[in-house]
Design brief:
This protein is an alpha+beta fold and 667 residues long. The protein has helices at residues 76-87, 93-105, 107-115, 121-137, 151-156, 170-202, 204-210, 212-227, 231-259, 265-286, 299-303, 306-315, 323-329, 333-344, 350-360, 371-374, 379-384, 389-403, 407-420, 428-453, 455-479, 486-503, 508-515, 522-551, 555-573, 582-587, 657-663, and strands at residues 4-5, 17-23, 31-33, 36-40, 47-53, 66-74, 141-142, 148-149, 595-603, 618-620, 649-651. The strands form 4 sheets. It has a 4-stranded antiparallel beta sheet with strand order 5-2-9-6.
């Protein structure tokens, strides 16, 4: 059994007993646990604080605490729960700065591109109409002799020429616009699917840097489309931009949650959604007619995409990659430790290293490595692993819920709702900006709440309210032709729905997807979940307008029925991940092997004559070892050497109080 060396802070008067676990075969440096520096002699083990068990004893004074060591096995979830006292961290400047660069180069760009074409949509349709009309009016005329001429040729021989085509009709323009939107979504689907492979292949940081390439390319191609008089370039540019956004939607939450302490994962997962909403808000401001929403300036809206990507490209190379990727995927222990020290801004990161190392370990004291560590996950392996089917199903279905919740329909209807409420046409763009601002504000509110309230409550309660709002807005839209004030109810429903979405279904689905899996399957699982998200986005984009034309205001009845079923699914199937490590969450689905540990049990030594509670039933000498489970065994241990208080191991019962008093009288 390894020797335990202990250093106590002066003035420590804690009267609680503590247990600590040392993992056999760990290779970390000594770890400070609370106020103590603990080290295992021959085994350079890391220590996890398992918490305190109150003794309910009032102590006047005591000698240094006694301790007992025994070997046993612990589940992975139990061991990681033991480490939480040391894993818990606060915000640091380096953590916040790295997170900002990740989000500005990924999350913000995604949000910006969601909203960038909303304000100038009529200008873009006019560009399509003018371009294709001009092409048809100046099209080549086929002469009877088989040669190709221009309009002047046609005037010379009008009898042998074909008729000039009329301007492009509205349905063609609508189709071209829908195609532009669809190509962006298709690019997003492809990007989301390859994001996991890219993140595993080159790492989280390099993947972000590589993802800047399609961002620059898409922005430049889209911008020059007007100068080139080519709507096809705009469509192609939006497809390339979609690739960038698809990768970004998976990389950002993956990277953020892997650098965050377990107790701040909710905050940083929500911050990812916050930057998406900020991107939408900023794009709606830049798209105002008074700024860049004009016939000559709207292409520059697309070029602004390059600014945050350029910031990411310049700054991110000087910042560390994900420590979990370096440690668990690259097996670069030194690199992971260096990255952790930078992010945590402290020299002692042994607890974080131990938390990651146990994800690699299995039975036999960490000598045997898990299958997750030694074999990379392919998509087929992910789908065939039985233990991963349920978390994968939960992750994918949460993405489906997010996109089929009706939020896109609410935004689609918002302009018409504001118009019917009497908002002047020129002011509708400002009303939409206010809606986007509310989305940002409520997401800010959700950031500190996420790790306190938990994921499940912030999903369930807003979803229940959303069901009610969908019923109310259907009624309001139906009756507003007869009851004028119903239009104001509709506005309230729009704002209420945005608020509920911002708190729950906005940030949580992608966050939980990143939390449910260990390092091995996480990138592939997020790729599949992201693919499902983008597919549902395409489904809504293609079908919503047609459904709205057919059943008008009753469109929301469909979303109402879906949301009732979705709420039931969340209640029965979605686990709570608040304040849990990756291993604790994954162990609920895929337990893994137990870990052999040395358990150190420390107890205060009684040296006074004060009153003792009957539940406080023992003290342990500094060099004594428990011969039975102190919680479950009723055995009475007598002093090993009454002349030496350090060796006293006594079970206290009411009738033995005098005996204990006598045995400690000489202290």
């Amino acid at each position: 059994m390894s020797e335990v060396q202990e250093k106590k802070k002066d003035g420590d008067t804690d009267s609680h007993s503590e247990r600590r676990l040392y993992r056999h075969g760990s290779h970390g440096s000594s770890l400070h646990v609370g106020d103590e520096a603990m080290a295992l002699g021959s085994v350079k083990g890391s220590v996890g604080a398992i918490g305190t068990s109150k003794s309910n004893i009032s102590i006047r004074s005591r000698t240094p605490s006694g301790k007992s060591i025994r070997s046993r096995t612990a589940t992975r979830a139990e061991y990681h729960d033991d480490l939480k006292k040391e894993l818990k961290q606060g915000f640091t400047f380096h953590l916040l700065f790295l997170s900002f660069i990740i989000m500005i180069g990924n999350s913000f760009i995604f949000g910006y591109n969601i909203g960038v074409l909303n304000q100038p949509v009529m200008l873009i349709r006019q560009f399509y109409n003018a371009t294709y009309t001009d092409r048809q009016s100046t099209s080549a005329v086929v002469l009877t002799n088989g040669s190709i001429g221009n309009e002047s040729d046609a005037s010379l021989n009008s009898s042998s020429s074909t008729e000039v085509k009329p301007p492009v009709d509205e349905y063609m323009i609508m189709f071209l616009w829908s195609l532009t939107t669809t190509l962006f979504v298709i690019g997003g689907m492809i990007g989301a699917y390859v994001a996991g492979y890219l993140a595993d292949r080159v790492g989280r940081k390099r993947a972000c840097l590589v993802n800047c390439i399609p961002c620059f390319a898409g922005a430049i191609i889209s911008t020059v489309s007007v100068a080139a008089n080519s709507p096809e370039l705009l469509m192609f540019g939006r497809f390339i931009t979609g690739l960038n956004c698809g990768v970004a939607t998976q990389l950002a939450p993956m990277y953020l949650l892997e650098i965050s302490p377990y107790n701040l994962k909710g905050a940083f997962g929500t911050a990812n959604q916050l930057f998406i909403t900020i991107g939408i808000f900023v794009s709606s401001i830049w798209g105002l007619r008074e700024i860049l929403g004009t016939q000559s300036s709207w292409p520059y809206l697309l070029l602004l995409n390059c600014v945050p990507s350029f910031v990411c490209l310049v700054v991110l190379p000087f910042l560390p990659d994900s420590p979990r990727y370096l440690m668990l995927s690259r097996k670069d222990r030194d690199g992971a430790e260096k990255a952790l020290k930078f992010i945590r801004q402290q020299s002692d990161v042994a607890a974080d290293m131990e938390e990651m190392e146990t994800e690699l370990s299995d039975n036999s004291g960490g000598q045997k490595k898990t299958e997750d560590a030694d074999e990379s996950y392919t998509m087929m392996r992910l789908l065939r692993t039985k233990d991963l089917r349920m978390p994968l199903f939960v992750a994918i279905f949460l993405q489906v819920i997010q996109q089929l919740s009706g939020i896109n329909g609410i935004f689609f209807y918002s302009a018409g709702i504001y118009r019917n409420a009497g908002v002047p046409p020129y002011a509708i763009q400002y009303a939409i900006i206010v809606t986007n601002a509310i989305n940002v504000i409520m997401t800010i509110v959700a950031v500190p709440v996420m790790d306190k309230a938990g994921r499940r409550p912030l999903l369930l309660y807003p979803m229940i309210v959303m069901v009610f709002i969908l019923g109310l807005i259907t009624m309001a839209l139906t009756l507003q032709a007869k009851i004028s004030w119903m239009s104001y109810i509709s506005i309230a429903c729009v704002l209420g729905y945005v608020i509920c979405f911002a708190i729950g279904l906005g940030p949580i689905p992608m966050m939980i997807t990143a939390e449910l899996f260990r390092q091995g399957p996480r990138p592939r699982a997020m790729s599949l979940a992201g693919l499902a998200n983008w597919f549902c986005t395409a489904l809504v984009a293609i079908s919503f307008e047609m459904i709205q034309v057919l059943i008008k205001e009753y469109t929301f009845i469909i979303f109402l029925c879906l949301m009732i079923g979705f709420t039931a699914f969340v209640f029965f199937k979605v686990p709570e991940t608040k304040n849990k490590t990756f291993e604790e969450i994954a162990s609920a689905f895929q337990p893994g092997g137990e870990i052999e540990v040395e358990e150190v049990v420390e107890f205060p030594i009684y040296t006074g004559t004060d009153q003792m509670d009957s539940e406080a039933d023992f003290f342990v000498g500094a060099n004594a070892h428990l011969m039975a489970d102190y919680k479950n065994k009723p055995s009475v241990y007598l002093p090993a050497d009454e002349s030496n208080t350090d060796d006293v191991v006594v079970k206290l019962v009411d009738e033995e109080k005098q005996t204990l008093k006598n045995s400690t009288a000489n202290v």
